[in-house]
Specification:
CATH topology: Glutamine Phosphoribosylpyrophosphate, subunit 1, domain 1
Oligomer: single chain
CATH class: Alpha Beta
Number of strands: 12
Bound molecules: aspartic acid
Strand content: 15-25%
Largest sheet: 8 strands, mixed
Length: 310
């Protein structure tokens, strides 16, 4: 029987000194653990990898600690514009949404685009119109308000600068969330959801909603979810590059992901990380930043929950 495996992330980067207290670290780990267990239980009961990744990402979207759903950062105009994408490695069906406000769980809307529309990617008004047709509930701005995120925006408001969700480049942290899974049938899936970057320009789309860039799944190779400086991830076509190195060069999951994050992305000047799984249930979670909120569990092994590098 196939191994089941699930990995999740809550963003890569460096924590601003003095911001991480033992209490906060505990909260991060608790929310990561909840998201991991909720997704894992679906796999353990014989459920599909696509259901598992959606569930884990829903949990992370509902936590104010991560830059997705409830915890989304502020745009230059003081709004929240969220991006998300999901992919099924068996059928290679995919769904993505971008520039969406008011939706609690953008990853579920991306899944609806995959399953209930003829399209792969809906953005802005069109995505909102689609959500309305499906009777999504729209939250008002107070649901997404977080004083930390608001203050981060105040530091940048009125400037041309846009930042990952901590203000100092060198001390930056990215809070995008994602999940990758391998189910009992060896089917892979990946899901990624984000609020993007603080003070980002109206209309800016990052890597997280782009299939093959911030998110990709293919049963022949791997499932990948990324986090980091989106503009660089787009130019490096990160997620698909990991898959290609496995498919065309015969590299292992770990070798492929390491080269992409620690060589190809770094050479362009990009920082961040990814989580990936293959159909044997191997997991790898490389990052070229000081840390990445992450958790994983393979079959009956003990789970791993970590923030910093080892
Ligand atoms: N990759 C995301 C973006 O550029 C940011 C992040 O990972 O936190 O929108």
């Amino acid at each position: 029987m196939n191994k089941i495996a699930l990995a999740i992330h809550g963003g890569a980067g460096t924590l601003v000194k003095g911001m991480m207290t033992p209490e906060l670290e505990k909260r991060y780990k608790e929310d990561l653990n909840t998201a991991l267990q909720e997704g894992y239980i679906i796999l353990a009961k014989g459920g599909s990898s696509i259901d598992a990744v959606e569930r884990s990402v829903n949990c992370l979207e509902d936590s104010p600690l991560f830059n997705a759903g409830k915890g989304s950062v502020f745009t230059a105009t003081g709004d929240h514009e969220m991006d998300a994408s999901i992919m099924d490695g068996k059928s290679r069906n995919a769904g993505a949404i971008s520039l969406v406000s008011g939706i609690r769980n953008p990853i579920s809307l991306a899944r609806d685009v995959m399953e209930k529309s003829e399209h792969v990617f809906l953005a802005g008004e069109g995505a909102i119109e689609f959500a309305k047709k499906l009777n999504y509930i729209f939250e008002d701005k107070s649901y997404f308000y977080d004083s930390l995120r608001y203050n981060q925006w105040q530091e940048l408001k009125g400037t041309e600068d846009f930042k990952l969700d901590h203000s100092h480049k060198k001390d930056s942290k990215f809070g995008t969330v994602g999940a990758v899974a391998c189910d009992l049938d060896g089917n892979l899936a990946a899901a990624t959801s984000t609020g993007g970057m603080t003070n980002k320009r109206f209309g800016r789309i990052g890597d997280s909603s782009l299939i093959g860039v911030g998110n990709y799944a293919n049963n022949n190779t791997c499932a990948v979810s990324c986090t980091g400086s989106g503009e660089f991830f787009i130019r490096a076509v990160v997620a698909y590059d990991v898959s290609c190195l496995m498919e065309y060069k015969g590299l292992s999951l770990k070798e492929a992901a390491d080269i992409v994050i620690n060589k190809r992305l770094l050479d362009l000047g990009g920082d961040g990380g990814l989580i990936a799984v293959d159909k044997q249930g191997n997991i790898t979670m490389p990052f070229n930043t000081e840390g990445m909120y992450r958790a994983s569990k393979v079959s009956d092994e003990k789970e791993l929950i970590a923030i910093y590098g080892t």
